[in-house]
Amino acid sequence: MPTPSARSGRGGAPPVPAGVRQGRRPGRGWQSPARGLHHAPDRRPLEAWQQVLPPSAAFSHLTAAGLHGWWLPQLPDGLPVLVDQAEHDHRTRLPGIRVTRTAGPVPSTDVDGLRVATAEQTLLACSRDLALLDVIVLVDAALRAGCSVDAVLDACRPGRRGVVVLRQALALADPRSESPWETVLRVMHVLLGAQVVPQHVVRDDSGVFVARGDLWLTGTTTLHEYDGAVHREPGRHTADLRRARALTAAGWTRRGYTVADLRDRPVGVARDVDAALGREHDPARVRPWLTLLAGSTFTPSGRARLTRRLRPR
Fold this sequence. Notes:
By secondary structure, the protein is α+β, with helices and mostly antiparallel strands. The strands form four sheets. The protein has a four-stranded mixed beta sheet with strand order 9-10-11-12. Strands 1-3-2 form a three-stranded antiparallel beta sheet. Strands 4-5-6 form a three-stranded mixed beta sheet.
């Protein structure tokens, strides 16, 4: 028989779903995310984890960000399940889970039967441990998914861990971004001192649509865009070449950048920005960008740092 959760909230704990067991392993094929915790192959590990959590707890941080369906920064492998839990409840201690104590029950919502921290609480939790660039990516994704700026600001009450980073990220966020690396490209341009407009629509002199570009360098006829792996697919490559010719015919310059350009060769991007804006090239402009990038999960050192911070206690 299913074993109910060891702790009950008001009205009792919710019933254990079929396919989740605590105690002895029921049989072959059952998977065990932790000792004494099992789920059938057709069940998600988080359904099993939820059974060992008190009602005040909710999946939070990067675990919740994934459940909300947001883009994620470049995360290291092997991160634990991340949970926020009211401090008056006994801390859940099992390998593979990291619990952060909170002053009270975690504001949560139901996502496919799982208790998940609300969008704004998830962002605040992530801001406790992630670097600013990572949090900007998450805020862009959350705003694009419908989270309101006001809700995020309301969660930024003084004295709460992560508030400073989350406020900084909110000031640099833009829901018009359509991918994590587009966000990275935009933030890089902002730190290089360029005013940019995401998803700018280019029309020719007759008003006919030509293209929509990732970033327009305001005051110029230049588009800068992120070129991911999809742009190397044969069909897409052909369409990209046709689009580039149309932009050239309309009097526009289009430059595409890869991960290596943004991460390993930023001076080249800075040179292009300076040329487009008609200003003297100054390699020193990349220093703020390099500082921001270095702490983020878009670098190996940033991923190693996050692994250390999120190691289960």
